[in-house]
Amino acid sequence: MTVELISVGTEILLGNIVNTNAAYLSEKCAELGLSLYYETSVGDNEGRLKSILTTALSRSDIIILTGGLGPTADDLTKEVTAKTLGLELVLDTHTKERIGEYFNKIVSHGIPDSNWKQAEVIEGAIIIDNTNGTAPGLIVETQYGKRVILLPGPPNEMIPMFEQDIFPYLNRLRPHVFYSAMVKICGIGESKVEEGIKDLMDRQENPTIAPYAKTGEVHLRVTASADTLEEGMNLVKPVVEELKERFKDNIYTTDEKETLEENVVKLLKQNNLTLATAESCTGGLLTGKIVNVAGASSVLNSGFITYSNESKRQFLDVSEGTLKEYGAVSEKTAGEMAMGAARATNSNVGIAITGLAGPDGGTIDKPVGLVYIGCFLNDKITVKEYHFRGNRQKIREYSVVNALDLLRRSIINNSNF
Amino acid sequence: MTVELISVGTEILLGNIVNTNAAYLSEKCAELGLSLYYETSVGDNEGRLKSILTTALSRSDIIILTGGLGPTADDLTKEVTAKTLGLELVLDTHTKERIGEYFNKIVSHGIPDSNWKQAEVIEGAIIIDNTNGTAPGLIVETQYGKRVILLPGPPNEMIPMFEQDIFPYLNRLRPHVFYSAMVKICGIGESKVEEGIKDLMDRQENPTIAPYAKTGEVHLRVTASADTLEEGMNLVKPVVEELKERFKDNIYTTDEKETLEENVVKLLKQNNLTLATAESCTGGLLTGKIVNVAGASSVLNSGFITYSNESKRQFLDVSEGTLKEYGAVSEKTAGEMAMGAARATNSNVGIAITGLAGPDGGTIDKPVGLVYIGCFLNDKITVKEYHFRGNRQKIREYSVVNALDLLRRSIINNSNF
Asked: Which part of the chain is the MoaB/Mog domain (chains A, B) (predicted)?
């Protein structure tokens, strides 16, 4: 089955927003094993939307439209879809009630008249409740066997709706069961991972292995097509085991939803460890990532952003001799920063980053991209030297991922002894 | 003139990357006054790319393709474009030399054979040198008056090429001169800004005013179409003056390229002020933004991420009484944090954020989204209370923008006395 995405909204064509919905839905369609060949963005314009939708209906089995379901006169995705399919709009009393309830919860004054427009649905459509807004999702199954799915544009409405209702709906349509697992790798490069799975990718038709490169990480999705879920699991399992054998502790999780920072917070909790951070060139990015994990406060008490030598001395107790002899960007300073952060806050673990993110400040001895990451744990200091490529932002992002990875490995090694 | 974007790459359709190129090019086209009606993403597939390009040629004057100019066999944007237009590929010796030079600079071992493919160009095309990679850009002016522009996919190659060569090229094509100015506003909501310019937007045909909402900011682009640049400037100037009159110090810059954090760093430098930060719920995000400004180290010595009450006491000298009586999320704590950060680091200015980013921890008195931001400057403490909506990430982003805005206003007010 082929699927096609249409993003509706003049704000996309004006460059006002980045179309993250398309990236999200693309990945989900890949996960579902659906073939996606075209993605189009079009403005809130009846003629052009109709022409795009007509083309899509002629070449794809499932068309997912996002956006243009709002209450204003500009929003016309529902109206144009109905017209293109030769269907009418009808009032849905269930949706009308939900809209009333929604507004009563969040506003004390009345409901804008225009919002009642959102209670109108395409006749015969399957109505998907919107738990985070007022525009319901709609699934229209046409008499020609095509399916048109209308979803709201705001990601915080669209994504929960997709996860809860649309994904299972699409999953049921498929002739086979698809079962997939995720293997998340960090600490080794993309090309090395691809080299390590080349034979598997060449050999295997079912299950397939697809690599997704993220900054500093590689995610491998293993997907099997089968007649039953159990058969799918049985096909996927040995491949995941093989990957575990090959990549060992470079794999930080096989949990689809777990991020690297969540993994680190979990490991800290499991081992009853508390953490302090000390950042120089990353200036708070690492701590910001950790704090973004709900519940991080139970393991992270404090962090230091020590840009100047003075602050490295004052708050982290880095010795004057170290800074003079080795400089702020050095193995020795990174180690002392990590230890100093842990000791100043009475934490078990300290993690420190010092490096040159550029664009200025590089020398032949210490070029831009040189970063030292230190980890202090159980009175043991580990420091690693990195040479990252890219602009200031990229170097800082790589530093953060690798600091999380060093934390992870240090905690695992420590708990093994 | 109408323009259309085609993003080529299977990685987009698999959801492997977010298509930020499309957002960037859309905004630039709006700036150029070009009408953009369609954006399409298509995989590295000859048949489908050809069909999309043919459709685009039938309905738009200028077609910009990004991606698929790489050295591998998968990359076929150039080949398919040539074929669709009935043109040949020819070797360009200038590009061949540049590729040789590029590789000699970054690798000591030989040049992969496949890279020489990138020295082939469409016959008759204008060749745009790539200063950050090996694939040149190409502009093909067809005999039917259409223009097809091929650009490399990686943003760090595409954006400099667009800014330096493609933007001026497109600008010259237009029958009129377009002159535009940017007015960047923060500290007041999007709806309030739109209300404040409604009459101007309704009244004015030339120049036009287009609002762009960013998190916590609104950017207004004023664009005039004219016969000469001078005439354009004369049309834009009074509108910008009118906007300055209306929004006063809510405008932080009229410099197209200046970000809010750059503006704050500039203000600090101009006033010979040094800054210390203290973050609770934002956990380093604010400092990370400031540190991302090149040269920030001259104004920022240190930052504190004080999650626990203990660390607020220990490093920022927040009094036990304050924490007990008012709690960590309070006006009083925010003020003491800001002062404590400044004093501990001997800085002139302290900025502090404490709040509830959720999802848990909210109460009726102190709901999720409640954030206090404190600024200490010249022995004066200013604290503001905010109620932000959205998820954890959004609340933290709003907090950061508003902290930067409070810093900005405090410095300006201080220097006025």
From this structure: 4-173
CA distance B162 to B29: 11
Domains B2-173 and B260-415 share a fold: no
ipTM: 0.74
Q: What whole-number distance in Å separates Cα of residue B404 and Cα of residue B400?
A: 6
Q: In chain B, what are the domain boundaries? A: 2-173, 177-253, 260-415
- Is A40 an 8 Å CB contact of chain B? yes
**Is the CB of residue A371 less than 8 Å from the CB of residue A390?**
no
Question: A293-304 burial by CB neighbour count: b if 16+ within 10 A, else e?
Answer: beebeebbbbbb
Which among A184, A333, A148 has a CA at the least distance from the CA of A262?
Answer: A184
Token couple for B235: 């049309």
Cβ–Cβ under 8 Å, residues A179 and A233? yes
Residue B112 burial (CB count, 10 A): 12
Of A26, A295, A311, the CB nearest to B15: A26
What is the per-residue DSSP string for B290-336?
HHTSTTGGGTEEEEEEE-SHHHHHHHH---HHHHHHH-SSSHHHHHH
Of A214, A343, A347, A327, which is closest to residue A280 (Cα–Cα)?
Answer: A327
Cα–Cα nearest to A4, from A24, A31, A26, A28 = A26
Rounded to a whole number of angstroms, the distance from the CA of A22 to the nearest CA of chain B is 7
Do residue B292 and residue A283 have CB atoms under 8 angstroms apart? Answer: yes
In degrees and rounded to multiples of 5, residue A362 shows phi and psi of -80, 150
**Cα A41 from Cα A13, distance rounded (Å):** 7
Which contacts (CB < 8 Å, 24+ apart) does range A33-36 have? A33/A174, A33/A176, A33/A178, A33/A223, A33/A225, A34/A1, A34/A2, A34/A3, A34/A62, A34/A170, A34/A174, A35/A1, A35/A2, A35/A3, A36/A2, A36/A3, A36/A4, A36/A5, A36/B13, A36/B14
Kindly list the distances between the CA atom of residue A356 and the CA atoms of A188, A361, A406, B264, B300, in Å, as whole numbers in the listed order: 21, 7, 19, 23, 16
- Dist. CA A53–CA B90, nearest whole Å: 38
**Which CATH number does A177-253 carry?**
3.30.70.2860
pLDDT at A107 over 60: no
- Alpha-carbon distances, residue B332 vs A252, B71, B313, B353, B358 (angstroms): 42, 60, 13, 12, 21
At the top level of CATH, the class of A2-173 is alpha beta
All residues of chain B having their beta carbon less than 8 Å from the beta carbon of residue A213 are 16
The tens digit of pLDDT for each residue in A320-354 reads 999 999 999 999 999 999 999 999 999 999 999 99
Interface of A with B in 78-137 (CB under 8 A): none
Of B23, B42, B311, the CB nearest to A15: B23
CA B126 to chain centre: 29
Partner residue facing A315 (CB), from B22, B302, B307: B302
The dotted CATH code for B260-415 is 3.90.950.20
Amino acid at the residue B105: K
Give me Rg for the CA atoms of chain A.
26
Burial class (CB in 10 A: 0-12, 13-18, 19+), B238: exposed
Residue pLDDT tens, chain B, 417 long = 899 999 999 889 988 788 999 999 998 998 888 899 999 999 999 999 999 999 999 999 999 999 999 887 788 999 999 999 999 999 999 999 988 887 776 555 566 777 788 999 999 999 999 988 889 999 999 988 999 999 999 898 999 999 999 999 998 888 777 788 999 999 988 778 888 998 888 887 889 888 877 788 999 989 888 888 899 999 999 999 999 999 999 999 999 889 999 999 999 999 999 999 999 999 999 999 999 898 898 999 899 999 999 999 999 999 999 999 999 999 999 999 999 999 999 999 999 999 999 888 889 899 999 999 999 998 899 999 999 887 888 899 999 999 999 999 999 998 876
